[in-house]
Each structure stands twice: as structure tokens, then as C-alpha cells.
Amino acid sequence: MGQIAVVFLFVLKARVRAAAGKVVTWVKKRLTESFRPLPIVTGLVGDALRSRQELLAENLMLRQQLIVASRKVSNPRFRPHERGLLVLLSSILHRWREAVLLVKPDTIILWHREGFRLLWRRKSKSRGVHRSALAKETIELVQRMSRENRLWGAERIRGELVVTENTFGRELMLLA
What we know:
- Helix content is 73%, strand content 0%.
- With 176 residues, the protein is an all-alpha fold.
- Helix 4 (80-92) packs across helix 6 (105-124).
């Protein structure tokens, strides 16, 4: 029984110390917060030093998030145009990470990357019918030579055109 009592007192002492440490930490935190200047005052001073354009952009970013949050669904989502707006505003604001409340800042960076991917995918697509750099008459000549001389390959047709002083590149070989 003596050993059990000693172990019990040892465990009890450790738990009391841990609880007391947590209480002291909590009290210190509350005291430092109460003696620190009011966050509203520091916010006002910070806003007074910022430009009007930056304040308007931050206001617009916060309003857009409020619009999304006020939707009557359980899990509101940003629509593509709203995502684009937040990406645009984040490029204007220097401290945009502080103004983002509904999503993580990494999410906005991800949206920016997705938008860039879409932009370059769209720019990279071929537009309409591919127009050849060769004149229509030249294409017809190559096709006629190919029909009339079935045994000639692309190199031979190209050689004949070079002889007739029509110099062409690799694209002509693809036509034969």
C-alpha cells in the first residue's frame, strides 16, 4: 500500500503542476491582450497609412466573400467569375492574405495557376483551318506530279521542283 500511495501522489503532483502551468499561461495571455493597444485603434492607424485604391480593393474582396457566405446553402462555393475576381484583387493588394477569410491563401494561389493554365491552353489551340505557307498552284503541281509519276517519292518530287528553281522546305515533302 505504501508504494501505491507514493505513485499516486507523484502522478497527482505532476497533473496539478500541468494544470497550474496551463492556468498561468492563460492568465498571462489575457493580461497581455488587455494591456496591448486596442486592435481597432491599430487597425485605424494602419488604414490611414494605406492608399485609397488598396482600401477599396480590400473592401471589395471582403464584400465578395460576404456575398458568397450569405448564400442560403450549407456549403457555399465560389463561382468561376468570383474566383477570378479574388485572384485579380489579390494581385492589387499587398496584404491580401489578411483579407481572405473563407478560403486559405494557398487556394487563391491555386486558382491563379488554374487560370494561367486555361489561358495558355486557349492560346495554344489552333485557330480554324490551317493555311499552308505554299501557294495553291504549287500544291496542285505537287499533287499532279505525284499522280502522274506513281513511283516517285517525296524526295524525287522535291528534287524536280528544285531543278525548276522552285525551292521549298520540308512542308512540301509532306504533301507528296
